[in-house]
Design brief:
single chain, 212 residues, alpha+beta, 2 domains, globular, binds zinc ion
């Protein structure tokens, strides 16, 4: 995860906002030189993406995710992240909006923000405060378990993570790699309700086809 820390100033609180119009040159550490030969990389660090969700196109990748069970990235949440969420930039990931709802953060990655047609590349959720999320009426226990499991699988996609799967209980299947998976308490794998396959990593889910 260290490679994702592109921001200077380690003391910056996670909740700090970069508002439209702020001197964003400090975010990426790049200062515009007044020579007129500004590269697009520099522009990305300097021009914050618009706060108007209407301006954004959706990538096919994101459209597909919107329809997946257990993804929890909805258009209304994504829109509110763009309108009023935190906005951060870093070298490896580009611009990201983030908003926290009842202990769960929605992160929205955007691209082409230095052009006239910015796009929402993808969006996902992560539990940042399990206690708040679990006691919230906004999220069911299954929601929280599913989000935590997705995060655990995505953090090290190539690695089997039975230890991360074992404590999770997800009785309503969610979609990953075209499989529909569930997991029981104390079991270190995911089971596909369609093909019966057992999986311990994200890459396994993506590399083995589901029988329809
Ligand atoms: Zn399957």
């Amino acid at each position: 995860m260290a490679s994702r820390r592109g921001e200077p100033g380690a003391g910056t609180a996670p909740g700090s906002n970069v508002e439209k119009g702020d001197p964003v040159t400090t975010v990426g550490g790049n200062n515009r030189r007044g020579g007129g030969s500004v590269t697009s990389d520099h522009q990305r660090t300097e021009v914050p993406p618009p706060r108007d969700p209407e301006l954004y196109a959706l990538t096919d990748h994101f459209r597909e995710r919107l329809s997946q069970e257990g993804r929890y990235a909805s258009i209304p949440t994504v829109s509110s992240a763009i309108i009023e969420g935190q906005l951060r930039w870093n070298q490896s990931d580009g611009w990201r909006f983030a908003t926290v709802t009842e202990g769960v953060r929605t992160v929205v990655a955007v691209g082409d923000t230095d052009t006239g047609s910015p796009v929402i590349v993808t969006a996902w959720t992560e539990v940042v405060n399990p206690q708040t999320a679990i006691t919230s009426r906004h999220w069911t226990a299954t929601d929280v378990e599913t989000i935590r499991l997705r995060t655990a699988l995505s953090q090290s996609p190539e690695t089997s993570v039975p230890g991360e799967i074992r404590p999770r209980v997800v009785e309503e299947s969610f979609e990953m790699g075209h499989h529909h998976v569930t997991t029981e308490a104390g079991v270190g794998y995911l089971s596909c309700t369609d093909c019966g396959g057992r999986f311990r990593s994200k890459s396994a889910l993506h590399h083995r086809l589901c029988r329809d």
